Structures are given as C-alpha cells and as structure tokens.
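Last lecture ended with a question: if I hand you only a sequence, what can you say about the shape of the protein? Today we answer it with a concrete record. The protein is non-specific serine/threonine protein kinase. Below, first the input exactly as provided, then the predicted structure, then a couple of comments.
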Amino acid sequence: MPTRISYGQLNEATGGFSASSLIGSGLFGHVYKGVLRDNTRIAVKVLDTKMARESPWSFKRECQVLKRARHRNLIRIITICSRPDFKALVLPLMSNGSLERHLYPSHGLKRGLDLIQLVSICSDVAEGVAYLHHHSPVKVVHCDLKPSNILLDDDLTALVTDFGIARLVKGGDESANVKETISIYSTSGLLCGSVGYIAPEYGLGRSPSPKGDVYSFGVLLLEIVTGRRPTEVLIDEGSSLHEWVKSHFPHKLDPIVEHALDRCTPSVMPKEYTKIWRDVILEMIELGLMCTQFTPSTRPTMPDVAHEMGRLKDYLSNTSSSLPIEEVPLKTDGV
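The predicted structure:
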C-alpha cells in the first residue's frame, strides 16, 4: 500500500471537505471529491466519528477487503488516512458516478443507459461479486449490493464499492461467517444491507452468506428492468419487488417489457433488433426471479449468474445473429 496521505493533503484536495465537494453520504460517513497536487482525482470516504467509535471493525474490514481483493470490477484503494479523530479511505474518482445516478437521472437532463450498456454493467457486477465469493484470497460477502454501491469509470465499466459491512467467509464455506460476527446485526443493531435488497433469511436471523448477495443482485436486475426502486414497490404495492414481478409472470409481462424497451432503447434502432432486445429483457426478468427466490438453496451461485450475464452480453453484442436465444429454465420454490 502506498505511503498514507496526510489529513492536511486531503483537507487541501477537498477544499476543507466543503459542501461543494460532497458527492455522497451514507450510514457510515461522507464521500468527497478532490484533486491532489499531482492532479490525481480522488474520492475520499470519511468515516463518521460516531460510527468509527461504535463500529471500529467497519473501517478495518473495508481496508482489509480492498487491500487483498484485486479484480477489474472491484474498486481499488489508493491509500488510507487514519488518526484518532479521523479515518478515511482514498479511492480513485469515478467520472461517471454511480449506477444509481444513471438509473434515476435528475431533472430529466440526460437519457438513461441503453440495454447493451446495462447488460454489460450487470455482467461486470456479477463477475466482481463471483470473484469475491469464490476466487478472492479472502472470501467476501458484500452484504450491501445496490445501485449506489456500483461505480462507473470513463468506459462505463462497473466497479463494486463500499465494503463497510462486508463479511469474511472462513475457508470459502458459504454457511460460515467471520468469527467476530455473531449475527447479521452491526453493533448499532442495524440489519446488514439496505431495505429492499436484504435477503429474507437475514431477517430471520440467518448469518450473511454468498446467497444473500445473489438475492441482492436479483433485486438489482428486476429494478433495472422495471425502472422501480424496491422501496417504492414495497410502499405502493405492499410487496417485495420479487413478489410484484412474479405476480406478472409469465403471461402478464408485456407492460413491464414494453416499459423497459421504451426506457432502454436508443431513439434509432432497426426493427429487427426489437425482438432480440425483448428476449434479453425477458431473460433478465427470469434470472432476477431465480436469484430472489425465498429459499437460499434454490438460488444460483454468482459464477452461474455471471455466466448467464456474460451470455446475454455476448448475444446483444452480436445483434446480427439469427440464432434463437437459449432458454433459461425458471425453477422457483413457489414463493
């Protein structure tokens, strides 16, 4: 890890951690953009002082994960700044911000991402999380996969970020959790994850596992297709996003698919491609429903999910193909 950057350097780079430099806020602190003297553009994640006292493991955990896990679809750490009254992670600044920003563009100033871009982003995320679960030197359960924790670089390559509540898995055993983690609750008594993305078994007292991340990824897929936040569906429909989409499956999906086509289709696209895009949207819905099944053991693994997303990405990239898309059987547990 590089030499730690001083508090003074970070203070200068962010204009004194000014409001104009603030680019994000969350439970564990604030994120500021800044420019170092060598013109390196950085994002500084400053841990909230109260949370640093109540949850000292969060900062250590994120440092440990970012230091040891290396993958093109995971955010990399530049360095850290740590002193008794201040703790911060220094990360590269992602020019295209978060996926959240693109799914819900403010004030109608820009059109959202198209389906090819969205499928590519989902493929990137799946690859990154599959690496965490099965190939990283330290096996990791992210625990908070959602659009705001997915950043996009200059080329719209997706990078998974925010490992503040991640859990380490002993020996790659999916049923095990890190020794110091007794339950899914942090020291503040909060559930591991964000409302709408939390796997149902977590609410029943189960320990975090890779299958929980699979559930969150499935919610992400359904959110991208429907254009609806899971919390919005919970309030408006009184059900989870999985339950709402499942109530339309398989014979009442046309309105959802057409809405997705309207949002994710370029203004000019050959008519013969419409069926291809419709098929891909249907596949995303099926995969999303598979990932969000109630029973963890019935969900696919992230490598399986990454394989399916890679297949859809390749299929879209070759729109001239006349071969029919391979069907993915949907096996649900009735929930």
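Comments.
1. The beta strands are 22-26, 29-35, 41-47, 79-83, 86-92, 140-141, 150-152, 158-160, 167-168.
2. The domain at 7-92 is CATH 3.30.200.20 (Phosphorylase Kinase; domain 1).
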